[in-house]
Amino acid sequence: MKVDRLVSIIMLLMDKKRVSAHELAEQFEVSPRTIYRDIDSINMAGVPIMATPGVSGGIEIMPNYKLDNKVFSLADLSAILIGLASVANMTRATELNNAIAKVKNLIPPEKAKEIEVKANQIYIDLSPWMSNENMQPYLAIIKTALQENKLLSFDYTDRYGNKTARTAEPYQLVLKGNQWYWQGYCNQRNDYRLFRLSRMSDLQLQEQTFTPRDYQKPQLDFTDILATMQTKITLRIHKSISEQVLDYCTYDHFTPDGDEHYIVSFPFIENDYYYNILFGFGNKCICIEPSHVRSEMKRRINEMTTLYGS
């Protein structure tokens, strides 16, 4: 939303002396023209922004200007605190706690209780119930490497169980769903890779630094790609697992089948990941069609039965 972007730009300019329009455009994934329109809006709101042309130029808040806390509405301050707190829960970063403290300093004393109540109305905790014990230490190491442009070395296990030793230049830390990843340039593959933290071991911060190259952001939205790959299969499920199935499709795909069951048109791709989803539903789900998916389920079940013995 535009208002969120304007508030973020103001906070960023408060923290940094000068930032180019190109940097802001990349960070907020808009055009430089949009950034310049945003700057005009910020000026009109009473925050004096100046633009300096040239190679070392950029956009900055005018020197000696003190931000008036009236620039932010109660809703703005509540939204900022909710967002910062949700990220701080995941990373336990000192700098985020400092940012929260700075935002709280913008709150008028007579409004502090009201904003606290509003901010506590929404609590976002993205941390998993149980997590890998290496997660927090690894996040700290990666953040240091990002800040200091230092190489990272680690062992990486791919989804097929193959383990390789890697060194990579870190460029971005990514939280996707409930999993942490980081995007880096892998020296072994001579290309950018998105590494999943849970597949890493023996992560080490190297003393060797690197000169950042032109960064390629990872592709994180696969909605269009999945739409072309997915087909629909028909499941019959017990109502007790409706919530689990709704993680993958909407209630529009459900048709009642008696008092205890539903027929579900389920999005499916023929790979291990999706077959494991079906197995995760246990004996509360059966694939009705197509027949080849039923046959593959039977084959996999027979393999498991052989593995465990008679």
From TrEMBL:
Pfam families: HTH_11, WCX, WYL. GO terms for molecular function: DNA-binding transcription factor activity. It comes from Culicoidibacter larvae. PROSITE patterns: HTH_DEOR_2 (PS51000), WYL (PS52050). Keywords: Transcription, Transcription regulation. It comes from the Bacteria. This is YafY family transcriptional regulator. Residues 2-57 form the HTH deoR-type domain. InterPro entries: CBASS_pafABC_assoc_protein (IPR051534), DeoR_HTH (IPR001034), HTH_11 (IPR013196), PafC-like (IPR028349), WCX_dom (IPR057727), WH-like_DNA-bd_sf (IPR036388), WH_DNA-bd_sf (IPR036390), WYL_dom (IPR026881). The keyword Transferase does not apply.
